[in-house]
Design a protein that fits this description.
alpha/beta, 49% helix, 15% strand, 6 helices, six-stranded mixed β-sheet, 6 strands
């Protein structure tokens, strides 16, 4: 009988610990979400990780940049032209850290998590807001951003101060990026 009581105690203890840990993770995740949106890009955010992209995050991003001109850049780990565009953004970002740029990785695959982070670190872009599509939600995320976008990459959205999104597929010319971001 004592053995059963000990086992029941241990099971309930582990269950309670698991619930507490899960609640702490949710709370930390909410704090991280808010930190990415509200943090200035001039702050050293080299340890920042990519956040899951969803409708709530998208609304927060748009609200954060409301009244500002900004760029949303969509990319993939297996897209060489995307790397060229990330390099261009990196060059501009390191000259002017106050740029309004949001990076969204379209690889909705848990297997790419480490590779995605390595690419962001390689281009020294961890200080920018970084998001990624979630496994099973890529089509929904694409549609959320732009119902007429079919997934071609790289894809860039030049967002005007009035909130209008102007999408362009393919590698962006450096002069256009510089003109848009450094005004």
């Amino acid at each position: 009988m004592k053995l059963i009581n000990v086992i029941l105690f241990l099971v309930s203890y582990l269950l309670a610990a698991s619930v507490a840990a899960n609640q702490a993770n949710v709370t930390q995740s909410e704090k991280n979400s808010q930190a990415v949106i509200s943090a200035s890009t001039s702050v050293d955010n080299s340890q920042r990780r990519s956040l899951e992209f969803n409708q709530q995050q998208f609304e927060q991003i748009k609200q954060h940049y409301q009244g500002k001109q900004w760029l949303m850049l969509l990319w993939s780990v297996d897209c060489p032209p995307c790397f060229k565009e990330l390099a261009l953004v990196s060059e501009l970002y390191h000259k002017r850290s106050e740029l309004h740029v949001v990076l969204i990785n379209t690889d909705a695959d848990e297997d790419t998590t480490e590779e995605r982070q390595q690419i962001i670190e390689k281009f020294n872009l961890a200080g920018l807001a970084n998001y990624h599509f979630v496994d099973g939600s890529a089509t929904k995320s694409r549609y959320l951003i732009d119902p007429s976008w079919y997934g071609e990459l790289p894809r860039s959205y030049f967002v005007e101060t009035n909130g209008n999104f102007n999408g362009q597929s393919g590698l962006i010319k450096q002069a256009l990026l510089q003109h848009w971001l450094v005004q």
